[in-house]
Automatic annotation (TrEMBL):
GO terms for molecular function: metal ion binding; RNA binding; RNA-directed DNA polymerase activity. Residues 55-281 form the Reverse transcriptase domain. Belongs to the bacterial reverse transcriptase family. SUPFAM superfamilies: DNA/RNA polymerases. One of its GO terms (biological process) is defense response to virus. Keywords: Antiviral defense, Magnesium, Metal-binding, Nucleotidyltransferase, RNA-directed DNA polymerase, Transferase. Its EC number is 2.7.7.49. PANTHER family: NUCLEAR INTRON MATURASE 1, MITOCHONDRIAL-RELATED, PROTEIN YKFC. It catalyses: DNA(n) + a 2'-deoxyribonucleoside 5'-triphosphate = DNA(n+1) + diphosphate. This is RNA-directed DNA polymerase.
Length: 424
C-alpha cells in the first residue's frame, strides 16, 4: 500500500484484484437491492454485458455519480426505528473497494479502546475491556447516548479528517459524492447535507474516522473507556466524577464534533445498572441486561407462534439458527443457570408449537401414540380442553416430545453453546 500522502490512491481502488476482492465481500454479505432493483445474483451478468467497463471509465474520468440510497426503517431493540440507506450493488462494490484501500491507512492509528467494525476486533472484546476496568475499582459508568449519530455526521468535519491522510483529490471527491448522493424514500428523493447512511460498506469506517478524535480526547484526559461504533461508556470511581465527565464530554461532542447528545438517555449510574452492547456488570461479572433477555424472549415467541404456517422441521431449523447466533455473541456472560432455565422455557414453547400443528384431537392422539405414549394417556391428552401452553406441560406431551427427542430433531440447546464457549 502506498503511504497516506500518496496522490494515486484512486488507482489502488480501481485495481482489478482490489475490485475482485470487494465484489467477493459484497456477495458474501448478500443484502437487498438498491433503487435500481438489481440483486446480488444479477450483478455478474450485468458486468459481462459491458456495463462495468463503462462505469469504470466514468470513475477514471471523474464523471461517475453514485445513486441515491434506498431508505428503509428497521425496528430498534429499545423501541423506535433506525433508518438504513441501502446502496445499489454497484455502489456497494465501489464503497467496499474504497474501504479496503483506506482501512490500512486509518486503522493502525485508531484507539485501542475502539472495537467496532475493525479488523480483528469485536463487541465481545469491548465488553471484556469494560469488565477489566471495573475490576480496577471503577464502579460508575458514564453512558453517553449520541442522538441519531449516523444521521448527523458533519460532512465538512469528516472530509477534513479524511484529507489529513488522503491527498488524492479524486478519491476525496468520490467519497464526498457518496455522502451527498441523497436518498429515495417511497419515491420521494431527499438531499443529504449531513449524515452517513447506515447500510453501505464505507459507512462504518467513516464513523470510526469521525469518532477517533473523541477517542483521542478521552485518552488525553486519562479516561478509561470502551467504544463500539457510536456506543461508548466511560468508567469512573464516583458519581461526582461521572457528572463532571458527562458535562465536559457532552460539551466537547456538541461544540467540536457538532453531534447531539441525548440528555434524556445519557446518565451516570452504578455499573450494575449500566447497559453496554446488551450487557450489564455485577460483582465484576458480565451479565445479560434485562432488556436483552426481554428481546430474546420476544424473538423466540415470534419463531414459535401459531401464524407462521411452516413445517416443524423448518421451524426447528430457524429457532436453532437464532439460538446458535445469539449464544455465540452473548454467551460470554456468566449465565449458565440462565441458559438452563431458558432451554426449559424454549422446549415448552416448541412443544406448544407441535401441539398447535397437530390441531385435531385424532391427529394429536395418533402422534402421541406413535411417539410412545400409552393409548389411555394419549386419548386423555388429545381430548383435553386445556390450551396449547397449559397442554405443553402435561406428562403425556413431555413423554412424547422429550428433551432427547427434540434434540434429535435438531433443537439447539443454549446450555451446550455456553459450555462450549467457556470450557473448550
Amino acid at each position: 500500500m502506498k503511504p497516506a500522502f500518496s496522490n494515486d490512491l484512486f488507482e489502488h481502488v480501481l485495481q482489478e484484484d482490489n475490485l475482485s476482492a470487494a465484489w467477493k465481500r459484497v456477495r458474501a454479505n448478500k443484502g437487498a437491492a438498491g433503487i435500481d432493483g438489481m440483486t446480488i445474483d444479477e450483478f455478474p451478468a450485468w458486468v459481462r454485458s459491458g456495463n462495468w467497463k463503462a462505469l469504470k471509465q466514468q470513475l477514471v474520468t471523474g464523471c461517475y455519480q453514485p445513486s441515491p440510497v434506498r431508505r428503509v426503517e428497521i425496528a430498534k431493540p429499545d423501541g423506535g426505528t433506525r433508518q438504513l440507506g441501502i446502496p445499489t450493488v454497484t455502489d456497494r462494490v465501489i464503497q467496499q473497494a474504497i474501504t479496503q484501500v483506506l482501512t490500512p491507512i486509518f486503522d493502525p492509528e485508531f484507539s485501542e479502546h475502539s472495537f467496532g467494525f475493525r479488523p480483528g476486533r469485536n463487541g465481545q472484546q469491548a465488553v471484556k475491556q469494560v469488565q477489566s476496568i471495573i475490576k480496577e475499582g471503577r464502579r460508575f459508568a458514564v453512558d453517553v447516548d449520541l442522538s441519531k449519530f449516523f444521521d448527523r455526521v458533519n460532512h465538512d468535519l469528516l472530509m477534513t479528517r479524511l484529507g489529513d491522510k488522503v491527498k488524492d483529490k479524486r478519491l476525496l471527491r468520490l467519497i464526498k459524492r457518496y455522502l451527498r448522493a441523497g436518498f429515495i424514500d417511497n419515491q420521494f428523493k431527499g438531499e443529504s447535507r449531513v449524515g452517513v447512511p447506515q447500510g453501505g460498506p464505507l459507512s462504518p469506517l467513516l464513523a470510526n474516522i469521525m469518532l477517533d478524535s473523541l477517542d483521542k480526547e478521552l485518552e488525553k484526559r486519562g479516561h478509561k473507556f470502551a467504544r463500539y461504533a457510536d456506543d461508548f461508556t466511560i468508567l469512573v470511581k464516583s458519581q461526582r466524577a461521572g457528572e463532571r465527565v458527562l458535562r465536559s464530554i457532552s460539551q466537547y461532542l456538541q461544540s467540536r464534533l457538532k453531534l447531539v447528545v441525548n440528555t434524556d438517555k445519557s446518565r451516570v449510574v452504578k455499573t450494575n445498572e449500566s447497559q453496554f452492547l446488551g450487557f450489564t456488570f455485577k460483582a465484576n461479572r458480565i451479565h445479560w441486561h434485562p432488556k436483552t433477555l426481554l428481546k430474546f424472549k420476544q424473538n423466540v415467541r415470534k419463531l414459535t407462534n401459531r401464524n407462521w404456517g411452516v413445517s416443524m422441521k423448518y421451524q426447528l431449523f430457524k429457532i436453532s439458527q437464532y439460538l446458535r447466533g445469539w449464544i455465540n455473541y452473548l454467551g460470554i456472560a456468566s449465565g449458565y443457570q440462565h441458559c438452563v432455565e431458558l432451554d426449559h422455557w424454549i422446549r415448552r414453547r416448541v412443544r406448544m408449537a407441535y401441539w398447535r400443528q397437530w390441531r385435531k384431537p385424532r391427529t394429536k392422539v395418533r402422534n402421541l401414540m406413535r411417539l410412545g405414549v400409552h393409548v389411555q394417556a394419549a386419548v386423555a391428552c388429545g381430548i383435553t380442553s386445556k390450551g396449547p401452553w397449559r397442554s405443553s406441560k402435561t406428562p403425556g406431551i413431555n413423554q412424547a416430545l422429550s428433551n432427547a427427542y427434540l434434540k434429535s430433531q435438531g433443537l439447539y440447546e443454549l446450555r451446550d453453546g455456553w459450555i462450549k464457549l467457556h470450557h473448550s
